[in-house]
Amino acid sequence: MEEPRGKVIWKILIVDDDLELLSSLSQGMEPHRQRLSVLTAGSVSLAREALDKHLISLVVTDVKMPGKDGFGLVSILRREYPDIPFMLITGFGNPKMKGVARELGAEGYMEKPFSLQTFSSAVTRILDRLVEGGALQGVSPGMFLQLIEMEQKTCTIRLSERNASGDGVLFFRRGELLDARTGGLRGEPAAYEIFGMEEVDLAIENRCPPVGRKIRGDLQAVLLEAMRRKDEKRQQAGAKVNTGRVGAGHAARGLRGAGTPPAGTVLENVRRRLERLLGERSALKEITQDDTWDGLLAQMSRMGSLFQCGRLLLTYMEVGDNGGQNLLILPGENSIAVTLHPSCPRDRVLDALSRDESSPGGESA
Amino acid sequence: MKDVLRDLAAMDGVMAVLFFSEDGDLLFKEMLLPPVEDPEKKEWWPLLIHSLAGIREMELVFDRGRVYIRKTGRGYLLIFLSRGAPVALLRLHCDTVLPALDKTRQVGRGLGRWLRWNRGKGRIH
């Protein structure tokens, strides 16, 4: 069997009431365990449990089973997991059954008995389609997914975390993130989990199944919220980050959020947010706590009152001639100055961070 | 100069355009929305304009609005915008039209010199 491309570990769920067949198929796929993981279920209800728990890449189901049959499972798949391809196997095959399978959208149809080689070839062919748009290894989900948005791609992306057990799937239509799924989560909560993954291997399928729009916020907003949640988790876990550039006692508001997190953590949070927002393109040069701008910002804040603009959230400035220095200032009790490369997509940074800053209660560090 | 600035004021999302000399004197004012307070009555403009020394461009994002500041050869341009205004387009427009503002100044200087020279020659009274 030729290995499916990409580093994502595919999980295949085989459903049949014939436990011997399950066992032999499972053992037969053992040589491919580095790329494939086989799960088995003796009934549709057990299959349902597996679908809820795992990110299944392919379902192979027998048609005739006691209780709910294979068609019942297909109906669940079509309704709740439209991205999961399925293959029907049957011991009572006939041309009509084959036609029905095709009409239901089955990616494969096999009549028992079949050889292991035929089976694994069919599996590979289906799994290869899931990676037809390409595969990437060891990337940051945030960075990559913004490219999908920019290119307005329609695709399904399956991701698995490199150094952890997390995996998930994202659905994009014309660059818009419609839905996500990971573990038992769907929609935005699932997207937050996925975007919070550190380093992933991913596979791109060049089509998006007919999923409804479960994610309302745009990608930037979801990414920022994911980062915020991740930071929150880290803090709760007592993670300590020290940039070593500033003293303690930073109590600025906004991105720094409620309470008074250590200054190093605050700066690190800002850095991480920018890097994840833009990936390597953020061209972040330096982040420092810098109160030399406080006087200027106080002057500038006055202007907003002329038109009841509210509080000053962010300031971007170009200092010096010929693209001298590009600074982003996050005002607060002690302002934070971020030096950015001139090529940094300024509007994107300002929009994302100001949206973050103006959200009720601001971001928590 | 006024035509250039009025063109900027006509852009989407612009609430007001103010133009100050480098000394902080208000040279131009176009209000598309009535301000809460009259900017001319504010005494802090000179101080604010002086504090912009060395800054070529600045963008301030407030809760409910933005201010775009741009240094020109003749002073500082301040544009008050709604929060969702197309600021990238505005910057692009500034890049296009503001050099004309500087050129106007150069022409003005030349014209001034020409007028002075001709006055000196007694050709203009």
Write a concise keyword list for the protein shown above.
heterodimer, A: 365 residues, alpha/beta, Rossmann fold, 3 domains, six-stranded antiparallel sheet, five-stranded parallel sheet, 11 helices, 36% helix, 24% strand, elongated, disordered N terminus, disordered C terminus, B: 125 residues, alpha+beta, Beta-Lactamase, five-stranded antiparallel sheet, 29% strand, globular
Brief digest:
The complex is a heterodimer of chains A (365) and B (125). Helices cover 36% and strands 24% of the residues of chain A. By secondary structure, chain A is an alpha/beta fold.
Q: Your description of this structure?
A:
The complex is a heterodimer of chains A (365) and B (125). With 365 residues, chain A is α/β, with parallel strands linked by helices. Chain A has helices at residues 19-28, 44-53, 70-80, 95-104, 116-129, 141-150, 187-195, 219-236, 263-278, 294-304, 346-358, and strands spanning 10-15, 36-41, 58-62, 86-90, 108-111, 134-139, 155-161, 167-173, 176-182, 185-186, 200-205, 284-289, 312-319, 325-330, 336-340. Chain A has 3 domains: 10-128, Response regulator (Rossmann fold, 3-Layer(aba) Sandwich), CATH 3.40.50; 134-205, no CATH class; 219-358, no CATH class. The model of chain A is unreliable at 1-6, 239-262 and 360-365 (pLDDT under 50). By secondary structure, chain B is an alpha+beta fold. Chain B has one domain (2-120): Dynein light chain 2a, cytoplasmic (Beta-Lactamase, 2-Layer Sandwich). Helix content of chain B is 39%, strand content 29%. A 5-stranded antiparallel β-sheet of chain B has the order 2-1-5-4-3, with helices on one face. The longest helix of chain B has 34 residues, at 87-120. Chain B is globular. The A-B interface holds A 295-296, 299-300, 302-321, 324, 346-347, 350, 354, 358 and B 15-16, 33, 35-37, 39, 42, 44, 47-48, 51-52, 54-67, 78, 80, 87-88. Strand 13 of chain A pairs antiparallel with strand 3 (55-62) of chain B, so a sheet runs across the interface.
